[in-house]
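Record minuted for everyone:
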Amino acid sequence: MIRALILLLLAVFATGCTTIETAIESINLDVYQEHAASVSTIDHWNLRGKISVRAGSEGEIGRILWIRDGDSHQLELYGNFGSRRIRLIQDSGSVVLEDTQGRKITGSSMQAVLEQRTGQSLPVESLTYWIVGAIDPDYLSVNVWDVEGRLISIQQAGWTVNFSKYGNFGGYKLPTRFDMVADAELVVSEEPDQNIEEIRIVISDWGIE
C-alpha cells in the first residue's frame, strides 16, 4: 500500500510541445491510481540514456545502462565518476560494485555499496520506483501529478524528483527525463564538491518485457 501524503497543487506540466494544465478540481484520484497500479508492476526493463551529476561547482556527464530482471539488476554508469565505468550487479541478495581499475565493493544492497564508494547515501532503492514514475511505498511522500495520472513531482526519502518528460513505451507512460535534487540535510561533507546535490537522467530507450 502506498503510504503517501498527497498534495493537490496547481501545476503546469510540459511534454514536448504540448502543455498540460492541471487544476485542483480537475484531478481525478482514480486516474492516478490506475496509472500508478500499471507502472508499479514493471520489474523487467532494459533502458539506456544519459546521466549528469552535480556536486557543488563540479559536474559530470555520462551514460547509463540499466537492465532489471525481477530482483536482479545490472546498472552501468559510463563517464568520469571517478573512473571510466562503474558497474553494479545485484543477484540473489548480494551486490558487487566494480570499476575499470578492478576495484570491487560488495554489500547487501546497491544503496549500501554506493554509499561505501561515495560516502553519501544515494536513493538507488527508491530510484527503482521513481524511474518508472512510481512512488516508493516504503517512504511517506508529497506528490503532484497531472490529469493523466502521471507524476510531476515527488518529495520523498530526502530528495525532490521533478519529471519533465514522458513517453509511451510498451503500452506504458514512462518518464524520459527527470531531475533529482537532494535536501539540505543530506549534505554530509564540509567540502561542497564532495556532496552530490543534483542528478539528471534522460532516457533515450526503454525496453519493457
